[in-house]
Amino acid sequence: MDEGATFGNEAVLWEGYAAWSQFIWLYMVVAIMMVRVALLVRSAMPGWGSWLVGAITLLTTAATLRRWGRYVVTSRRVVLRNGWTGHDIQSIECREIREVSIKQGPLADLMGIGTVVIQSRQDDAVIQFRGVLDPEDVKQRIQAALARRPA
Predict the structure, then answer these.
(1) Structural domains of the chain, count
(2) Residues 49 and 122 placed together within one structural domain of the fold
(3) Residue 20 CB contacts under 8 Å (≥ 6 apart), including other chains
(4) 56 HSE (CA, 13 A, CB side)
(5) Are residues 76 and 103 in the same domain?
(6) Do 75 and 88 have their domain in common?
(7) Who contacts 92 (Cβ-Cβ below 8 Å, separation ≥6)?
(8) What is the pLDDT of residues 6-54, one digit of tens each?
(9) Three-state SS sequence of 98-122
(10) What is the 3-state secondary structure (H, E, C) of the chain?
(11) Starting from the edge strand earliest in sequence, which strands make up the sheet with 77-82, in order?
(12) Structural domain boundaries, residue 42
């Protein structure tokens, strides 16, 4: 993430994706599946190949989901962008932001991740940056962009 980068004619203040730990539950399921594969191979029973394919499919799904949403904070707006196609899914101009808050459960707090919620003034639009590392830092960067906006 290059803080000096540009996003069109806007300076990028922060950008990121969901943290790997956002998908910890998928990794736990994969670990259980891999234990099953090991037990089937060790006991020379058939079917281990299907379990292995399933585990690999779940890992691929986690990687795909992680990169699906690219979160960008620029000097002018906050953007949820499709990480695969590069198209904007949703954006809110800084002058239209009403509130920035953090949602964080106990497990997410323990892992250092959270959801940054950005609410619009006008149309009640909401953008959620889910599973970001250090959500307090992201919130502060957005608030710094809001402080810099022209009145």
Answers:
(1) 2
(2) no
(3) 66
(4) 7
(5) yes
(6) yes
(7) 77, 78, 118, 120, 125, 127
(8) 566 788 889 999 998 888 888 899 999 999 999 999 999 999 999 999 9
(9) EEEEEECCHHHHHHCEEEEEEEECC
(10) CCCCCEECCEEEEEEECCCHHHHHHHHHHHHHHHHHHHHHHHCCCCCHHHHHHHHHHHHHHHHHHHHHEEEEEECCEEEEEECCCCCEEEEEEHHHEEEEEEECCHHHHHHCEEEEEEEECCCCCEEEEEEEECHHHHHHHHHHHHHHCCC
(11) 6-7, 10-16, 69-74, 77-82, 88-93
(12) 24-64
**Length of the chain in residues, anyone?**
151
| Side chain identity, residue 42 | R
Domain match, 13 and 46 both: no
Does residue 125 belong to any structural domain of this protein?
A: yes
What predicted TM-score, i.e. pTM, was given to this entire model?
Answer: 0.79
Beta-carbon count within 10 A of 151 CB: 3
Phi, psi angles (nearest 5°) of residue 75: -70, -20
Residues 100-105, mean pLDDT to the nearest whole number: 94
CATH number for the domain that contains residue 131: 2.30.29.30
Kindly state whether residues 77 and 141 are assigned to the same domain. yes
